[in-house]
Amino acid sequence: MNLNSIPAFQDNYIWVLSEDDGRCLIVDPGEAAPVLHAIDENGWQPQAVLLTHHHNDHTGGVKDLVKKYPDIVVYGPAETQSKGANNIVGEGDRLQILGLEFRVIHTPGHTLGHICYFSAPYLFCGDTLFSGGCGRLFEGTANQMFASFCKINALPEDTLICCAHEYTLGNIKFALSLLPEDPDLNEYHRKVNELRAKNQKTLPTTLKNERRINVFLRTQDNDLIDVINKETNLQQPEARFAWLRSKKDNF
Q1: CB under 8 A, 24+ apart: contacts of 77-83
Q2: Omega before 183 within 30 of 0, i.e. cis
């Protein structure tokens, strides 16, 4: 199985899993043109589309892809039905695609119906968890997003986090504003800076790495708790998560 990423818009990635025989699945095609170009260039044969949520930068290319490949199956949560999903899926569903079994995980927060797709080692998590960061709360609550992070954090440490945006550098800068002496954050910041200076992507990341550098996964970390306690005394990890998200919104 080959993991490919197609840049789109300013900072989106459209993920494609392809077999050596050319069969492939496409994740969150926000626009069709770069996907169709990659299909022609690589000789791919699209079998399915996976949608994580309804936002246009994740669904805008579905109509044109279905027009060219009318038999393609488009999986997505109920909120994507109007965007072209023809097979509605939800928490606990298991999909057989390209010989892989994908488990659907409901991860509300960014939107209420947001889902992720997991087939070890791949996690297609849309706008829930980013490298070093967390999706904005457009529809859900911080408590919902915290619960979604807990679901993701329960996956194996070698899980490949295939998120949909190149937000890593900004996320690490935010984390360093809280923990400027943290050695893991400083080392990752150096690596990410080098990659972005060469216009190279920082994704996918691993869950093992995220547990070290993503402050939204470190709400039980004593160093981070000490920082938060300088401003407010929050006893519950959910409350600390909400504090972090609020700080990031205004960073």
Answers
A1: 77/51, 77/52, 77/53, 77/106, 77/113, 77/114, 77/115, 78/113, 79/53, 79/54, 79/111, 79/112, 79/113, 80/51, 80/53, 80/54, 80/113, 82/54, 83/51, 83/54, 83/56, 83/59
A2: no
Q: How many domains would you assign to the chain? A: 2
Q: Print burial letters for 183-206: b (CB count within 10 Å at least 16), e (below 16).
A: eebeebbeebeebeeeeeebbbbb
The answer to whether the predicted template modeling score (pTM) of the entire model surpasses 0.70 is: yes
CA distance 35 to 149: 29
pLDDT score at 148: 98
CATH number, residue 94: 3.60.15.10
C-beta of residue 97 within 8 angstroms of C-beta of residue 47: yes
- Residue 65 pLDDT: 98
Amino acid type, 180: P
The ranges of the chain with pLDDT < 70 are none
Share of the chain above pLDDT 90, in %: 100
Q: How far is CA 89 from the centre of its chain?
A: 18
Q: In terms of residue numbers, what domain contains 106?
A: 2-163
Q: Is the same domain home to 91 and 187? A: no
DSSP labels, 89-148: --TT-EEEETTEEEEEEE--SSSTT-EEEEETTEEEEETSEETTEE---SSS-HHHHHHH
Q: What is the pLDDT of residues 103-138, one digit of tens each?
A: 999 999 999 999 999 999 999 999 999 999 999 999
